[in-house]
Amino acid sequence: MESQNPGQSTGNGGAPTDVKPSLDPVLKSIQKSLGILHQLHCTVSSFTVNSQLTLLERVNSLVCEFDEMQKAAQNCDIQVPLEVAMLIDEGKNPDEFTKEIINKCIQRNQTTKGKSEAFKNLRKQLLEELEQTFPDEIEAYRELRSVSSAEAKKQLQAQQGLPNGDVKIKTEH
Any stretches that span the bilayer, and where are they (predicted)? Predict the structure, then answer.
């Protein structure tokens, strides 16, 4: 499995689209806001009456930078699941959300696979027991199934079907 470039998105049916240019102003604004927050923290931790004007200037510059960030973010169309935002608020790694979703998919797949196998085994067992009780009827059933299967294959081939069941589509140039 290939890792995806963080500056790319697959929002158009799997084809990577470069979204980095629209994110650059947002990322720069975030970096600038973090710098202002650090300066603000330093000012607050060593606050004196003389530093009140500096504190107000830094708060105002932070508010202005948040406004710039919001304006820059309007050009970005990125959907973030609410669960991911909540994990980030809780201080957790958002990759855990992805890992959890993949694990749930694997678990559901295994459950479905188990059910499918159980039905196959049930069918096999029923056919074995029915064959012992009604051998002639089961023989007729199997012949009917093979004829019906052969007809379905012929129809599929007539529709220019591919081996995996897909149908070929002619493209016009």
Answer: none
